[in-house]
């Protein structure tokens, strides 16, 4: 069972349009509404893969009730923590060439009592979890050290924890030794404070995060694939994509694949890549099912060309 924690969830509405023309009245060719938030998406991908998952999240107002209802309809158990503020609603506009424009709301401000209740709920429901995945930005009212406290509490109950966040929240949590951290290239560059232009740069940056406390680093590199760096070494993988329809939630689907495959080693990396590649070819934040996965097309190697330039170097 994989328990997810999403401190700032959302309702996500996606509109598909022929082209984004500012100031014009546009007609959508398709639209959908999905539960949103990185941890929520991990739970959705885990459930779509046929595994049990429990989503812990703050729930506020009608939008929060709608979010919980959508998750339940997908077969996901929800442990909602009532909050006074309103769960946020986000909008994404997708164009045929894969360009995605997102408008993300700020979300509610959590009180000290609500923050502690969220931590307590995770502790109460973590018994029996194989992994706890804590994902996304922190809402107003939660200090950057909140994730560090969650990592510490998770380890005290004997569970493994994967962390997908960035900035001060990531660096503060490293001291508690999360089992896996999942930055993208931009977040990794921000963490180490320098540009990343080659695969070798990414490996060195991942090793720095391990030196600061992360036990393993699963780095998403967009079109360049993914990199896993752990105590066994560094593994690089890529998966072909016929065409990008929407990249919303693709990284979350990738993390779900990694965890459902055990959360360690090249096999888990291959499953992560297959999930990510499948997700970007689906509309909105729809999560892939086993029928969408093509693990045979994934390529994994531990003999990387370290001087290979990234397709989109991070300045």
Automatic annotation (TrEMBL):
Pfam families given in the database record: PfkB
GO BP: carbohydrate catabolic process; small molecule metabolic process
GO annotation, cellular component aspect: cytosol
The entry's keywords: ATP-binding, Kinase, Nucleotide-binding, Transferase
GO molecular function: 1-phosphofructokinase activity; ATP binding
Entry superkingdom: Bacteria
Carbohydrate kinase PfkB domain span: 24-290
The UniProt record lists the keyword Acetylation: no
Family membership: Belongs to the carbohydrate kinase PfkB family.
Name of the protein: 1-phosphofructokinase
Originating species: Streptomyces glebosus
């Amino acid at each position: 069972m994989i328990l997810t924690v999403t401190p700032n969830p959302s309702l996500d509405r996606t509109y598909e349009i022929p082209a984004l023309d500012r100031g014009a009245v546009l007609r959508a060719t398709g639209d959908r509404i999905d539960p949103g938030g990185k941890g929520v998406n991990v739970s959705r991908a885990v459930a779509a893969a046929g595994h049990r998952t429990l989503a812990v999240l703050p729930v506020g107002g009608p939008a929060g009730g709608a979010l919980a209802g959508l998750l339940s309809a997908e077969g996901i158990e929800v442990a909602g923590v009532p909050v006074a503020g309103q769960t946020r609603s986000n909008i994404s506009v997708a164009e045929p060439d894969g360009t995605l424009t997102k408008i993300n709301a700020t979300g509610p401000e959590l009180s000290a009592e609500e923050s502690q209740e969220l931590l307590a709920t995770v502790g109460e429901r973590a018994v029996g979890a194989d992994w706890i995945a804590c994902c996304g930005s922190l809402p107003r009212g939660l200090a950057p050290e909140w994730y560090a406290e969650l990592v510490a509490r998770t380890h005290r109950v004997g569970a493994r924890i994967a962390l997908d966040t960035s900035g001060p929240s990531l660096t503060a949590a490293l001291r508690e030794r999360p089992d896996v951290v999942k930055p993208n290239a931009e977040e990794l560059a921000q963490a180490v404070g320098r540009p990343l232009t080659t695969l070798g740069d990414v490996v060195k940056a991942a090793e720095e995060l391990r030196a600061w406390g992360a036990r393993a680093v699963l780095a998403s590199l967009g079109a360049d694939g993914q990199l896993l760096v752990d105590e066994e070494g560094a593994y690089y993988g890529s998966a072909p994509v016929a065409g990008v329809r929407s990249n919303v939630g693709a990284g979350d689907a990738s993390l779900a694949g990694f965890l459902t495959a055990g959360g360690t080693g090249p096999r888990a990396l291959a499953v992560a890549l297959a999930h990510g590649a499948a997700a970007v070819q689906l509309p909105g934040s729809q999560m892939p099912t086993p029928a969408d996965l093509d693990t045979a097309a994934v390529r994994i190697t531990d003999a990387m060309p370290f001087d290979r330039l990234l397709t989109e170097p991070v300045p």
